[in-house]
Amino acid sequence: MVCTMVSLRALLSSARTFRHGPGHAAGLPPDDAVLLDAPDEQLSPALVAAALGDFGPAAKLLATTRDAADWETRDRRLSRLTAFAHGRDGWLTGWLAASPRDPDALLVKAELAVRRAWASPAHAELLREVGPLITAAAEADPRDPVPWRLALDHARGTHAPHTVFESLWEQAVRRSPHHYGSHVAALRYLSAAWYGSHRECFDFAERAAEDAAADSLVQALPVRAAFALLRDERAAARATSVQRDRIDAAADLAIGLSAAFPAGDPWPAEVRNLLAYVLVARGRTTEALEQFRLIGPYATSFPWASVAGEALGGFLDARADVRLRAASSGYSRRRPEHSGRRGH
Length: 344
Fold this sequence. Notes:
Radius of gyration: 20 Å
Number of domains: 2
Number of strands: 2
Strand order of the largest sheet: 1-2
Strand content: under 5%
Helix content: 55-70%
Shape: globular
Structural class: mainly alpha
């Protein structure tokens, strides 16, 4: 039976009492070693420099991803830099003053404007005002799919009809057929919480995963659809056997994706965190514990911030509960080793 969000919250709450036990006994790092949304080794120096008002390293980092057409890394680093700029944007102001037509600076500017607009209760009106910034970023480098991911998020927030969404989607996939960020933005538009349904969400996610390579992050799209259903308490409570089967199949697909990467790799950390959440919700304790072991110290705000008041606490509570449940059922630490894929 699918756990509703109410029961999952209770599960996490009960785990807090036991959270500080010996996690290493299950191959898990201790609580105080877990990092939330940790930047990668190349991004960290850029953030330090930005804190000192120096935009140079951030500019070089994004320019490198654009030159290499490494759109996945570009999108991820853009999100981290924009999150930083949300609170401290002096370095971005300096960058734009020095290079007002820099495609990377324009992209950060557009992403920051979209992020700030979404944070407001009047986001629909504010998002309409930032449309020209997205257009400017898209025109600055016509190859780049990331501005079109922004355009899809913009379309969702401005209540754009399906015809507009479809035209933007066509532009995004023309530039990068399997760009994960664009797929996530499309999935959100098609979700039951916005302009689609759980069925549309699963259909879109499963088709996209079928077309993508086995080690593509798009393989995690169905587990995102599963998460959306589990977050909908009413839908989860009355889920049909077909829907439960789709949730489990999505989790199985994401387990296969996770196995393609080494343990403790920060690149698939968000996918593994999401997968662990879904496995917990489905009562698949042994498999959830294995994902927590593979996650290592890399907790991510998504999905834990959506179920717990504080993301890191939600992660640690879920991990503690799974560890205790697994220990009571005699889970063994001995698991098959995966060579994984390196390079990120």
